[in-house]
Design brief:
The complex is a heterodimer. Helix content of chain A is 69%, strand content 2%. Chain A contains 16 helices and 4 strands. In chain A, helix 10 packs antiparallel against helix 13 and helix 11 crosses helix 13. By secondary structure, chain B is of the alpha/beta class. Chain B has a single domain, classed as Rossmann fold (3-Layer(aba) Sandwich). Chain B has 10 helices and 12 strands. Chain B is globular and about 60 Å long. The chains are: A mainly alpha, B alpha/beta. Chains A and B meet through helix 11, helix 12 and helix 16 of A and strand 8 and helix 5 of B.
């Protein structure tokens, strides 16, 4: 902040250059990356429809998916823990909704609420085991990666003799809670934009004259809402202070009276909650639940968080950064497709950017703490 | 200091015993701590210093003996009880998070909040302002309240921790080896901080095994050896050599003294 507050200045305290100051903000890598990625794709795929209304919606939805799980992973990582069961949790939650809502024929709102209850309870169990045994969360949640995936395949096979359960969209028809996850908003506004000719409209067929993109899916609203919630929780509340402290040094935090165990368990539950939001939006969109859903999502969430400037060791990071990491992810994954680049190169990109981000973060950590 | 010596002790430990199974860590230790004094607790490694201060701060329950706070017998069940009685501990491993800013560290666990639309938020302005105020009082120049604790020197961190404890109403401050890992300059800063805090009427319990540091600020000295105390000496009533001998149990060190030139 300002230097007027200090009356006597220490000659050894060097003024920090504003560049250095900016460098220790966790979002920096994410901001630079976002600008770079957009610049590259405007250049490579500017005329391929990537930046038309459908194109924007396409990578926005993919980015929103990454964002939803990145927010949970981000807060958990800052609190000093990992959750490798996120991907399996997505598959598991989707399958539960399908079994409750379609196979059992319960009302969709009940299926969704029950699934949220079960999944956050599993998140709490994850956290509880980590805290009670003192084992690294890496191992505990790795176990749950397999346990949950196993159940996700076992349950539908035993009950329905198949690994994909469809008919969710029909079952959710007119359900008040289904709309919260699978609906779209601002449809009138998009019709208006279409009428003005700002966005493209269908030129023929039964929907001629209607906009191609007819609203903002709830998936995106959830993503923005969770990012906002996570950011405020982390930076503007005392609980956010406790999240940083729990991951920065759990013992020191305990000595200061921070309920570290409670913070960690709550963050595990929040991560599970985010995974369930993802799963619910996805099954509402696809209309089906598959046993292979969410594969590798845990790593993608962690990578987005790390690109966003969080330290793998905890205690430092930013939700906004993680959201930018997710955006980079979505734009690149879809952008390569628009640019006509072989999509397998996406993984190469992933590895390279992950390595670069981790190296940058380690350097930043030294800047903050003054270590050498 | 004599006037204060005659007042009631702010905390008195009466005949504290602590056994861990067959091991006797403390075999009946009694001391009295008065407001505004710096009471040095000296002892070699394994003398029982750590166990003793843990009983004082409520981390460990004594097997036998009483803790008397302001004349009332209070046996602490947990650290929170001790904190409520005004006893704060600054640990060897500081309760500080290097990656977090000074002001966030300062208020960790006691964050000021303000309500906006019924939801309570962290009051960052207040935290920053009060942190800068407290730091200036202790003579630490911060670049700003959002400077990370990791950039502070070990001595400055001790000072932040001490002023934090005082800020939140500590009446007895237990400092566990605050100078053991510090250089000369930093040590003198910490000792100066102890002096400032003492003048505000806070009782300081200064644990150390460095006789010179103890003599620099201490008002009274208690030596622990093998779980027992060899009594409490007043400032000026004991020589550094005598203190050193008491800590070492009397013999081995005395014979070394010649070859080491008396500079232990």
């Amino acid at each position: 902040m300002s230097n007027e507050t200090t009356t006597a200045t220490d000659e050894r305290v060097k003024e920090m250059s504003s560049f250095r100051n900016a460098l220790i903000r966790p979002e920096l890598g994410g901001i630079i990356g976002t600008i770079a990625v957009f610049a590259v794709f405007i250049f490579l795929a500017g005329d391929s429809g990537m930046f038309s209304s459908q194109g924007v919606m396409n990578w926005s939805i993919v980015s929103a998916q990454f964002m939803i799980i990145a927010v949970g992973a981000c807060l958990l990582m800052i609190a000093g823990e990992f959750d490798l069961s996120v991907g399996s949790m997505i598959g598991f939650a989707g399958m539960l909704i399908a079994i409750f809502g379609v196979t059992f024929g319960w009302p969709m709102w009940m299926a969704i609420l029950l699934t949220f209850a079960i999944c956050t309870a599993i998140g709490a169990l994850n956290g509880f085991i980590c805290i009670r045994t003192g084992l690294p969360s890496f191992i505990v949640t790795l176990a749950f990666l397999f346990i949950l995936r196993g159940f996700t395949i076992f349950l539908p096979q035993t009950i329905e003799r198949k690994t994909i359960i469809g008919g969710i969209r029909e079952a959710a028809e007119g359900d008040w809670l289904g709309v919260v996850f699978g609906g779209k908003i601002l449809q009138g506004f998009f019709v208006y934009l279409g009428d003005l000719g700002i966005i493209s409209v269908f030129e023929r067929g039964t929907r001629a004259g209607q906009p191609v993109v007819d609203g903002i899916p709830m998936m995106i609203i959830w993503a923005l809402g969770l990012v906002l919630f996570g950011h405020i929780l982390l930076t503007k509340t005392r609980f956010g202070n406790w999240i940083f402290a729990s991951g920065g040094d759990a013992e020191a935090a305990r000595n200061s009276g921070v309920p570290v165990n409670k913070v960690k368990v709550l963050m595990f539950m929040f991560t599970a909650f985010c995974a369930t939001v993802f799963a619910t939006c996805q099954v509402m969109e696809f209309g089906s639940a598959g046993a292979d859903r969410g594969l590798l999502k845990e790593f993608e969430a962690i990578i987005a968080v790390v690109i966003g400037g969080a330290l793998l060791t905890g205690g430092y990071g930013s939700v906004i950064g993680a959201a930018l990491g997710a955006l980079i992810f979505g734009v690149v994954q879809q952008g390569l497709f628009f640019a006509g680049v072989e999509s397998s190169l996406f993984r190469v990109f992933l590895g390279v950017i992950l390595l670069g981000a981790v190296i940058l973060n380690t350097y930043i950590r030294r800047l903050i703490t003054g270590e050498r | 200091m004599n006037a204060q010596t005659e007042s009631t002790p702010i905390i008195e430990m009466r005949n504290i015993r602590k056994t861990y199974g067959p091991v006797i860590a403390l075999a009946g230790v009694s001391i009295k701590i008065y407001p505004g004094e710096c009471h040095c607790l000296l002892g070699d490694n394994g003398a029982g210093k750590s166990t003793f201060i843990k009983t004082m701060s409520g981390v460990v329950k004594p097997t036998d003996g009483d803790i008397v706070v302001n004349g009332d017998i209070q046996n602490f069940d947990n650290p929170r009880d001790a904190m409520e009685a005004g006893i704060a501990t600054v640990h060897q491993h500081l309760a500080m998070i290097p990656l977090m800013s000074v002001s966030r560290n300062f208020f960790l666990g006691n964050e000021p909040t303000k309500k906006i639309a019924g939801i309570s938020f962290y009051d960052r302005e207040k935290a920053d302002h009060e942190t800068m105020e407290a730091m200036r009082k202790m003579g630490i120049n911060l670049r700003g309240p959002d400077q990370a604790v990791g950039t502070l020197s070990g001595g400055e961190r001790q000072t932040v921790a001490i002023s934090r404890a005082v800020h939140f109403g500590a009446k007895v401050l237990i400092l566990d080896e605050p100078t053991s890992a510090l250089g000369v300059r930093q040590t003198s800063n910490v000792l100066a901080t102890i002096d400032k805090v003492r003048k505000e009427g806070v009782a300081v319990v200064f644990i150390t095994h460095n006789v010179r540091h103890a003599l620099a600020v201490g008002d009274r000295f208690t030596v622990l050896n093998r779980g027992t105390t060899h009594g409490t000496a007043e400032r000026g009533g004991i020589t550094p050599e005598a203190l050193q001998d008491l800590m070492a149990g009397g013999q081995e060190l005395a014979s070394l003294e010649g070859s080491l030139g008396g500079t232990v």
